[in-house]
Fold each of these.
Amino acid sequence: MASSSSERGSDYEATHVHAVYEDIASHFSSTRYKPWPIVDRFLKALPDGSIGADIGCGNGKYLAVNPHVFIVGSDRSSNLIKIARQHHPHAAIVADNLSLPHPQHSLDFAISIAVIHHLSTPGRRVEAVKCVLEVLRRPSSEEAQDGGKALIYVWALEQKESRRGWDEGHEQDVMVPWVMKGGGEKRKEKGQRKKGNEALTERQEPAEQPKDKTFLRYYHLYRKGELEHDIEEAGGTVVEAGYEKDNWWAVATLK
Amino acid sequence: MKLLTLNFLTCARRTCKTSPSSFPLHPREAELEILESELNLVFLRNILPRLMWSELRGIGEELGLPSLPESPPSREDLVTKPSPAKPSSVTEPSSVEEEGGEGEEVPSQTAKDLHRLLLETTIKEGKLVCGNCGHEYAVKEGVANFLLPGHLV
């Protein structure tokens, strides 16, 4: 379990989220290349020439999906942005989800993939969603459905089939290890439900190999309905929502 | 950082966003670098209506680049006018149609200039300054950094 909620906030995230990604950037990036199907579908369905933001773009793997739109990818980690900037025709900048440098209501779309769950208090998570929604174009009239759309993805509490085994009723604020193997070439994340054979493999490693390094990242695991709640709270409307492999996702517009 | 990016950026401070003078950000002490990339006519045509032309002109002037025309190019300006079909093509209509393809459009000089300015001209080092609060955002190794110091958040 992570620290109590009163200790959390911006300083806490600087240590337990931002610093970690800065350290694990290239290793993390080498494991992040396959787009998730719902995100892939969302990006490919955009009309050519759409303009959007990938807020918390990490290594920019979603910038590679559709070259007919223009995406400004942003991330807190400058090491990840150095990797993300290779994707043409897009752009990559260093920015904070809570202080985004985009004109309000100017973009056709935004994606926030596996980002909001790193904010460490309920208020900051709602604020982060609000900042994502604020970059979206407003609909042309109250009834119109033509406003900008945001796709938001967060890690789910309900994932008992995963190797981590979290489920309904478990602690939602957790520290998740990122293990960099001694050589740096392989990764293994240890969950709460560690399998016996994994432990065995570790013990069998020759002693002269460089030691593994474990980094802990803070996550708030979303329970069913919580993402929709945060979106409503942030002044958005949920257009579509669902669950995809251990994650809750929602497509939202401005109210 | 590609100049096109400036079309979609403003000051990261919440209090500046509602002020018209915060857009666009002004490049200062900028070291430019040309990074060549393939011209995509469809892409250029599609983003054309989204360009804040007079602001982009202003940025170009501040950077000392050749000045842009006063009004933005039209979609038609981006392609060279197709040359009239030669009579010889009538003799082999099928092969010409299949190989030539109807969509074979040739980018005009205007399209090439626009591509060069927006997608190939990049700020390698320098600053981006908010016209409202005067805050300076650093650009280093081609990456602009919008993280604010604690007292400005």
Amino acid sequence: MITKLRCKTFWVCLILATSHTQLGAHHANSAYDRSVDITVSGTVTKWQFINPHAGLWLAVTNGNGEPQEWSVEFQGTLDLYRHYKFNKDTFSSGDEITLIGHPARNGGPTLSARIVIFSDGREVNVRNAPD
Amino acid sequence: MRDSFLTRISTVGAIILILPSLASAQSLPDLSGVWQRDFPGNSSLVPELPLSAWGQERFDLAKPIHGPRTTAATEANASELMCLPMGLPGTYYRPRPFEIVQLPDRIVMVFEVNNFWRMIYMDGREFPEVPLHTWNGYSIGHYEDDTLVIETRHIIGWESETQQRWIDRLGHPFSDELRLIERIRKTDEGTLENEVTIDDPIAYTKPFTGILRFREMDYELAEFICQELMLSDLPEMRPGQ
């Protein structure tokens, strides 16, 4: 079942357990629940355009009105570059963006990116590359 | 007059001498280009692999991060998880392209992942008397009509539970005794077929053969350094977890 929840900017739509016990899950599909989509909006604080997976960090205000940092996992640099022309300058600190993606199974504030919605409304589906 | 006759004779002679080499050059298949797998990364070479007792025991110890036995990275022991090479034919299973560069005396395969390269010697040499086992092994090759035939030996085989070596991403092991035969040809423009034979008397009860297909990509190779993993702040990317 796909649960796609939209909500106001700067709010995490689906409030997950906030336990920060992170399980290492590089590549393991089991790390993310791919049957579920959640939407997270926030302000970019960091963009690591590196391999094997790029990372994006967002300052988010959660459903309780508390600040929370989210990390977002992307494909590696060349998949992002070849398919969507992403590079090290795609995101800058202070950008306001929305991400739709799969939540971590462990309930941590981390997401596997599927769709990026930029502040100008442009949407990019970033999950086209093979695993 | 006599000079002219001699010139003609020598010209004809030169053409006769050159013709075979031209024909030979023309008949060599052009396999150059950038190629990427056109098969699922979680597949195996054949549906049922003839594992030996040695092979089965090690297969049971494998904890892959793809396929039906996918294991969380905290528990897995796939070498790619640590950005280590996967050897051959395992590297073909990664979702990254490679380029074939054909030179007169050798063929160079450049794998985008980690800038790995592989040299295939085409000058008629034999395998080294004293083997040096390496991740991609030692390869010698020759052409048979439209097919490039490569034999590879001396690939570092399965070592331990934490030093796994697989022929795919599913955990099927190979030993130091692996003899890998590849028969590579173009089946049409844009499609490369590699008939891969695994001959490993330690890990398997008999040799077996499967087909891997690749499609030509319209981009150039770029740099992909997996070890940047060490720089990642993503909680899921902590090496060794």
